[in-house]
Amino acid sequence: MNEAATILQTTSAANTPGESREVHIRVRDLTMAYDGLVIQHDLNFDIYRGEVFIVMGSSGCGKSTLLRHCIGLIRPAAGSIFYEKMDFWGSTEKERQQMMRRFGILYQSGALWSSMTLSENIATVLERYTRLSKSEIKDIAYLKLSLVGLSGFEEFYPSDISGGMRKRAGLARAMALDPEILFFDEPSAGLDPISSRNLDDLILEIKESMGTTIVVVTHELPSIFAIGDNSVFLDANTKTMIGYGSPKELLENPPQPIIREFLTRGEQ
Amino acid sequence: MQHFHFHRSEQETLFKISPSSGDGDAVTVSLGGEWRMGSGSGHPATLFDPKHPIGDVRSITFSQDGLAFWDSSLVSFLKRTRDEAHEKNIAIDISQLPLGIQKLLALSGSAGKTDAEMPVYKKHSSILLALGFSSLRWTHTFEDTLEFIGELMKSFGRFFRGKAHFRMVDLLQILRDCSANSVPIVTLISFLFGIILAFIGAAQLKMFGAEIYVADLVGIAMAREMGPMMTAIILAGRCGAAFAAQIGTMTVNEEVDALKTTGISPMDFLVLPRIFSLAVMTPLLSLYAIFMGILGGAIIAQLMLGISFLQFVTEAKMILTPMQFGLGLIKSFIYGILIAYAGCLHGIHCGKSAQSVGVATTSAVVVGIITVVMAAAVTTYIYNVLGV
Q1: Which one of A264, B77, B229, B380 has the largest count of C-beta atoms within 10 Å of its C-beta?
Q2: How many CB atoms lie within 10 A of CB B36?
Q3: What is the pLDDT of residue A15?
């Protein structure tokens, strides 16, 4: 572990006083690289069960890349990601698939399968992993869509609805299997302030009602402060994490000036 | 240091260089005239041009003297001058220039900072370097291709074990797109191709009084080679391109990522139905194309050579055994798989931009046609060796 990570761990200890809290995701010495070009290195942080964890940093710092490493789309150049005690990238393909079944992912664009209706999008996930009857699958698909306020749009195609609705439908699909962990990649991107706020409220409702661990990649300040319990700040210049703790504490006691600058839009 | 005036025209002075009072190492540059983009080739690119006698100075102060108009041409001149001055350790003072220019120069970044802090991707100036990068790209492409073929084999394995996950409705829709929707163009092309073959044959065979063998020529050519080949080229343009565009767009929209993270193999869900569709539909359409080509040939034989339709069909039936059709259909089966493979491969490996979808589509068609022609050559050689 590098020096910065040791300092950050000390900082984070103050931010995570609950010793009894269960670590859900553990990232250790993670290095991410594309074609030999290091994006981020020596990332070390824990995500606790039931919290909303924010991955923040300036554009191009590797936030979405970190998420893609966590959800199994890119293999790390070095280091490990543990889900509870299971080493995600050290496991077999089959074990990894089983772990991935516990994830739900809301992609930046919604990533709904365009050849299917909204209910079919959800049904496809349920068909893959459950042995429910067709009518039960349909009921659950309709339920999930109603939870995100899309009742009446079940048989619409993704191209027939607005960007905000596509995001919500994507969330309904992400929640299809009642996942333990939900990943959000830039949930507010492309949304108006009210839709963005509604999505934040929805994230909090999911956390409170289902106890889901939620990881959000974002640089939207209102969202960061509204929903974030804990966070990590990735720096594009040093290519490593330079802040770890709750967003409010990072604002009050920033380990680096750039974090305060980021969290105040450079206004202080 | 002598005074220097830079004129665009006799009436207009763009800048004057003069020694600063009391300091021999400093000069003052007074900007004037109209600095307007698109007003001809009169703007200098930088102050540090051999034509401008700056000399060895330590500082340059810019001022304005009758500066009537300025736009990005002046800012560009000042930026380049500032950057070059930074390299030469010459101090630049722009505080006497309009505030707008000062702000734009500040926005354009301070000299030396960008190069120091940002990674710079320079064009490969060395031939060896370019060759190396090109080889690496080819290696990546080769690896991607091998990986795709390996994944496809695994997907076939899952299919035969009944574990592949795809929607029957998608398969039926792709089957329809590849078949019924392709019939009009296949009809037109193969009919015309039969006519062309008959024309060529008629002109040659007439010289030997062997006109009746036009039926043999058209029949054999269409059944063994040209029917499957023309169908394959049409399908490479229609279906191969469509496959690459559909899957490429899904890649751009993260739909392929969503499949992977849902535990659904994109190979099973997207590639298998497309390969099955073309593996089935290419032979069927080829068979249709063969008959349309023979029909075209028969019409020309009647019009040009006076061979009746019945005579033509009787002669063609003698040479066109089921074996001849079978050989053509085996080829078209292979072509179908190759076209679908090329379309899906380029769709799956599409980048993340709209431009990459275009590249994937073009590549799918080009690779599809090339592989079809190569397969045609190989299968023809094998048939020849086998004596069939």
Answers
A1: B229
A2: 16
A3: 44
List the B91-93 sheet strands across, edge first: B4-7, B13-19, B26-34, B59-69, B91-93
A129 touches chain B (CB under 8 A): yes
Q: Which residues contact A225 (CB under 8 A, 6 or more apart)?
A: A247, A248, A251
CA distance B179 to B231: 11
Helix B272-300 / helix B322-348 crossing angle, nearest 10 deg = 140
Tokens of A219: 């640089």
Per the CB < 8 Å rule, is A114 touching B167? no
Residues of chain B in contact with residue A111, where contact means CB-CB under 8 angstroms, are 253-255, 257-258
Taking alpha carbons only, the member of B187, B387, B171, B176 closest to residue B287 is: B187
Q: CB within 8 A of B191, min separation 6: which ones?
A: B292, B293, B295, B296
Largest CA distance in chain A: 58
ipTM of this model? 0.81
- Of residues B22 and A250, which shows the higher confidence score? A250
Cβ pair A124:B117 closer than 8 A: no
* Chain A from 154 to 183: CB within 8 A of any B CB: 173
**How far is the C-alpha of B309 from the C-alpha of A179, rounded, in Å?**
70
Residue B283 exposure: Cα atoms within 13 Å on the Cβ side: 15
Structure tokens at B337: 């798989």
Measure CB to CB from residue B263 to each of A101, A112, A114 and give the nearest one: A101
Mean pLDDT in consecutive groups of 10 residues from the start of chain B, 388 residues: 66 79 78 77 74 79 87 86 88 90 80 46 71 88 91 93 89 91 94 93 87 92 94 95 96 93 92 96 96 94 90 91 94 96 94 90 96 96 92
Query: What would the pLDDT profile of A150-159 be if each residue is shown by its tens digit?
Result: 989 999 999 9
Average pLDDT, integer, range A40-47? 95
pLDDT computed for residue B308 by the predictor: 92
Flag whether residue A124 sits within 8 Å of chain B, measured between CB atoms: yes
